[in-house]
TrEMBL record:
Membrane topology (UniProt): Multi-pass membrane protein
Name of the molecule in the record: ascorbate ferrireductase (transmembrane)
Origin superkingdom: Eukaryota
Alphabetically ordered keywords of this record: Electron transport, Heme, Iron, Membrane, Metal-binding, Transmembrane, Transmembrane helix, Transport
Record field: transmembrane: 21-40, 91-110, 122-147, 168-188, 194-214
Signal peptide bounds: none
Cofactor section: heme b
Organism in which the protein naturally occurs: Tricholaema leucomelas (pied barbet)
PANTHER family: OS05G0565100 PROTEIN, TRANSMEMBRANE REDUCTASE CYB561D2
PROSITE patterns (alphabetical): CYTOCHROME_B561 (PS50939)
One GO molecular-function entry: transmembrane monodehydroascorbate reductase activity
EC number: 7.2.1.3
Pfam families cross-referenced by the UniProt entry: Cytochrom_B561
Length: 226
């Protein structure tokens, strides 16, 4: 029997809510698991640079995920708050995410310098550097939304759309960097068998949820123009 339009709408909203809840759990659970693996006193000690960098990137991923999910109508933790409050929290989380990324980048760079190792010679290192630079530019671009008069030939709606789209690209770069980090010797030694595949699923789940959110925002804007 065919589903009614109302039933389909409810089912769709329920699926989006479930996917968003999963994204929240993954965003919090994965950094926590990495912190446990890399905690002082464990077999993989903090003096090693990879755990430090991976932990920082994990926090970067958590903060970015929550910063983007704030605007989700189904899964935002601040649904009852005004958009002004959401924007401020979004800014705060994004800045913290950038600081975490810079911390990880600084730690790994300094550690390689002390040990006389080459910088940015792996795909993970190059992707991480690109992600940090892109995130810095994205935060700078966000200033235009606070002061849209700086872009006289652009409407606020268009600025929001481009900011969301470029933010999605930055988020996917961060997820790619995270996944490359999970291919490192430290991580593949610490996390084996099915646990490794489950860990790989974490950034995939959150990226799919974020992509769905951005695409829905784009479709909503297109419908509102007609």
């Amino acid at each position: 029997m065919a589903l009614t339009a109302e039933t389909e709408s409810r089912l769709y909203r329920s699926l989006r809510a479930a996917a968003g809840a999963a994204a929240h759990l993954v965003a919090l659970g994965f950094p926590t698991a990495v912190a446990v693996l890399a905690r002082p006193g464990s077999t993989m000690r903090w003096k090693q640079p990879v755990p430090l960098l991976l932990y920082s990137v994990s926090q970067f991923s958590f903060l970015m995920t929550e910063a983007l999910l704030i605007f989700s109508p189904e899964t935002s933790l601040l649904r009852s708050f005004s958009r002004k409050v959401k924007v401020r929290v979004h800014w705060a989380l994004q800045l913290l995410a950038l600081l975490c990324a810079l911390l990880g980048l600084g730690i790994i760079t300094y550690n390689k310098h002390l040990n006389g190792k080459a910088h940015f010679v792996t795909w993970h290192g190059l992707m991480g550097l690109l992600t940090v630079l892109y995130a810095g530019g994205q935060c700078g671009g966000g200033v235009l939304l606070l002061y849209p008069k700086l872009m006289k030939n652009w409407t606020l709606a268009k600025l929001k759309l481009y900011h969301a789209t470029s933010g999605l690209v930055g988020y996917l770069l961060g997820c790619a960097s995270l996944m490359l980090g999970m291919c490192s010797l430290w991580f593949t030694t610490s996390v084996t068998s099915i646990s490794w595949y489950l860990a790989m699923l974490c950034p995939l789940i959150t990226s799919l949820v974020i992509m769905n959110q951005v695409s829905n925002a784009y479709l909503y804007r297109k419908r509102s123009q007609h």
